[in-house]
Structures are given as structure tokens and as C-alpha cells.
Specification:
The protein has 2 domains: 2-127, no CATH class; 128-159. Helix content is 61%, strand content 3%. It starts with a helix and ends with a helix. Helix 1 packs antiparallel against helix 2 (18-29). Strands 1-2 form a two-stranded antiparallel ribbon. The protein is mainly alpha-helical. 8% of the residues are buried.
């Protein structure tokens, strides 16, 4: 499980296929008992966070907004130059550019919920693997021991 968890972190850091790594980890955790995704004495909840994927998305969104805003400003300069082509100092163009930029909405990066990049998988209480069958065998052995002990005491008392 640790190998699969590290594969998710590596895929996230290297911009790899995080979906396949997450599916592999989820399949393993949900089919094995006692799998714990937390790492260290003070685990973070939820334990799987695609930090680098989230940061790349934020960066791309902010760059796209910056390009859009730059284009609006460039368009404003061209439009105001066409309107006031005789103005050499640019004194009359500044209010024109400000009005153009305000009339055209500037792009802002919409907030992205980081919950889309956090995952937590829960292991089952019992699974039909070595640990699960060992637990069943131990429980049955314990019950058989108690029954044998009770039957032995009852026979000693009455015999």
C-alpha cells in the first residue's frame, strides 16, 4: 500500500497519470483490511492530497487571466490611439484607456475548490485475504477453546 501511495505522490509531482495511480491505490485499500493511508505520528486528513496538480491548475488559470487582461489593455491602447491620433503626449488617452478597461470586464481567476484534489479511502473491517481468514480462524479457535473449557469443567463436576 505504501508503494501505491508513493506512486500517487510521484505521479502528482511529475505531472504523470494520477488517475490510474489513484484507482490502483483505491482498489487496494478498499479490498484489504488494516490499510492506513496516514503517514507519520500526526497524519493529515484527508491523507491523499494532489498538491502539485492543484498548484499547476491555479498557475495555469492565473496565467490565462493575465493574458486576457493584457489583451484587454492592448486593445484599449489601440482603440484610444485610433480615437485620439493627434494627441502626442497621451494626456487624453489615459482616461480613454481607463474607461475602456473598466467597460470590458477584466478576467479574474475563479476560486477552485481544493476538495477536488483530496482523497480518502476506507479499508473494510473484514476482507477475504490472509489477514481476514486468520482473524476468522483465531475467533473460531477462541470460541472452541472456551467451549472445550466449559465442557471439561462441567464433566469434571458431574463425573
Amino acid at each position: 500500500m505504501i508503494t501505491l501511495r508513493n506512486a500517487v505522490y510521484t505521479a502528482d509531482q511529475n505531472d504523470g497519470d494520477t488517475q490510474t495511480a489513484l484507482k490502483n491505490l483505491q482498489a487496494y485499500v478498499t479490498s484489504h483490511m488494516n490499510t492506513n493511508l496516514s503517514a507519520g505520528p500526526n497524519p493529515v486528513y484527508p491523507p491523499i492530497q494532489l498538491k502539485y496538480t492543484y498548484e499547476r491548475l491555479l498557475k495555469a488559470q492565473s496565467e490565462a487571466a493575465g493574458k486576457t487582461n493584457t489583451q484587454i489593455y492592448t486593445d484599449a491602447q489601440h482603440a484610444c490611439e485610433a480615437q485620439n491620433s493627434t494627441d502626442v503626449s497621451g494626456r487624453n488617452r489615459v482616461p480613454c484607456i481607463e474607461a475602456y478597461v473598466q467597460s470590458h470586464t477584466a478576467a479574474t481567476a475563479a476560486p477552485i475548490s481544493d476538495a477536488l484534489y483530496k482523497f480518502s479511502f476506507i479499508s473494510p473491517r473484514w476482507s477475504p485475504d490472509l489477514a481476514g481468514w486468520t482473524l476468522v480462524l483465531t475467533t473460531l479457535s477462541g470460541i472452541a477453546f472456551v467451549i472445550t473449557l466449559v465442557v471439561d469443567r462441567l464433566f469434571r463436576r458431574y463425573v
